[in-house]
Amino acid sequence: MGMDNVTVKPHEKLALALEAELAAVNTLIRDRMASKHAPRIPEVTAHLVEAGGKRLRPMLTLAAAKACGYTGPYHIHLAATVEFIHTATLLHDDVVDESAQRRGRPTANLLWDNKSSVLVGDYLFARSFQLMTECNSMRVMHILSGASATIAEGEVLQLTAAQDLSTSEDIYLQVVRGKTAALFSAATEVGGVIADADPTVVQALFDYGDALGVSFQIVDDLLDFEGTGQTGKNIGDDFRERKLTLPMIKAIAKADATERAFWVKTIEKGKQDDGDLDHAINILRKHNALADTRLVALDWADKAKAALLALPESEIRQMLSDIADYVVARLR
Amino acid sequence: MGMDNVTVKPHEKLALALEAELAAVNTLIRDRMASKHAPRIPEVTAHLVEAGGKRLRPMLTLAAAKACGYTGPYHIHLAATVEFIHTATLLHDDVVDESAQRRGRPTANLLWDNKSSVLVGDYLFARSFQLMTECNSMRVMHILSGASATIAEGEVLQLTAAQDLSTSEDIYLQVVRGKTAALFSAATEVGGVIADADPTVVQALFDYGDALGVSFQIVDDLLDFEGTGQTGKNIGDDFRERKLTLPMIKAIAKADATERAFWVKTIEKGKQDDGDLDHAINILRKHNALADTRLVALDWADKAKAALLALPESEIRQMLSDIADYVVARLR
Fold first, then answer.
1. Which of A275, B204, B245, B251 is at a distance of 20 to 30 A from B59, taking alpha carbons?
2. pLDDT digits over A92-122, tens only?
3. Is B159 part of the contact surface with chain A (CB cutoff 8 Å)?
4. Are B128 and B88 in contact (CB under 8 A)?
5. What DSSP state is assigned to residue B180?
6. Which GO terms describe its molecular function (chains A, B) (predicted)?
């Protein structure tokens, strides 16, 4: 295979096109996560921020602003804001999920303690608000503070829906819209707002981010059952944590009496024995729950791409569209 | 004793003077802590918000605005914002401290779980930012987002300073300024800012809040050793949690070899036996550490009152001054 056969992934292409801006974002992030008084803070955040995240969310903000012809400096602040909010939620998620690994590395709550994860997460939230105020746009503030509230609301809803076999696809979608899509859509929307784009374009950017985020999370939930384990995530985490994701919800809707008893035992009562995860996956396969979920993810990716048509044609627009394809291509 | 001998406490007097505004704040709080999607949120927050807190911080904002002749509507939003930030930090503190009681009632993390406390705290933080954006004042946003970062920084610093016998009075003051005084000073400062008061008056309000907050926390730390237990706080919590507060720092500075070994055993190594708390209190008494700490608290209360002299004379100013006296009067 020659060089021309090496596939450059869409998010890597976008990263190249936004190279200078991303470097500025990284510098700003490093600068603002510092703390004169509490060295524990940069220790914890460096661990996460340097851990090889793809910077997908900040890239969306940069790309959205660029696609709308923005030439000012504030998309850098907004991209850093979005990454700070994301990192803060990761820190708190790890406490809530009692996770031991994230992106293939031990989590902060394991390396330090839950206390540090909670408080450093709070610090990053506060810093994100400081950063966004620097853009002097009330509209941006409304969007991002609203998104933060929606994220927390989605996480709480997920908490109360866990272990509840009556969780519907609607509730699932609400959780996903909150915990994942709200930040994606805010990331793209503020890119358009800062560029003073037309209302239809701003709406299209919101719709793109929303659909992309939903698709992204559904794929994530699928990979929890059929991933290779190379993503640093363990197969079956959601099953073990009794989190009802779309594949399980679809299978439970079609369960016969024996299967229902199995779900009650493993999810509702949390009694999980050796072999139960394999058995769960077999039930999912039997009811086509994984294949059906894949179709839903593809559908959301299509919605994301369709929304982009309201934007003027450009290389960046094409890259955003390719990202929507790539998000579901993670499923091979 | 006739009615005229019944003492109305200064914060109760202030609450009466601000009755209408406080009612509006309470309505706004109840309105904004609701969540259409996640009923767990108002459950958790109601438990805290209704738990009979004195609303001291929001009263400070209302009083500061009033003392500066403010007649607009936004002091209500700001007061609610300040209470939301306070409530969010309480929820997260209880997780960090693994507390079982707050204000004499079981904590949210005990009634629900740590997860709910973390996520509902995040929700309240986000809602506080939404609320403050409604005031359309960039300066207010800078002050309150800055205060939120300082609070988290102070909490992280406290975490890393715990169990460290070399903690100095300077570090202690830095922790207290962060975890407690930052919100007091922001609460009073934004009251002046929203009223468009003179820079000297705004500075004086900041100084008052800062000194009041420091005094308040020092008294709290003293009550942890000499309180009656009627505040819902257990005597010796800080000692048990190995948190070095001013009385301990003062006693450790004067420790002889035997006492030093005692502090190493109980605080650094965390080996605490029956009778150790009583022994610790005896050492504190021996070195006048409690009496000396009381003098420091009184000194900060005096600073708070002195700052108020930059404000025009008014009934409200007198009440704020009385509150500074009352904060230390809690020590009897």
1. B245
2. 987 877 766 665 666 666 666 788 889 999 9
3. yes
4. yes
5. I
6. all-trans-octaprenyl-diphosphate synthase activity; metal ion binding
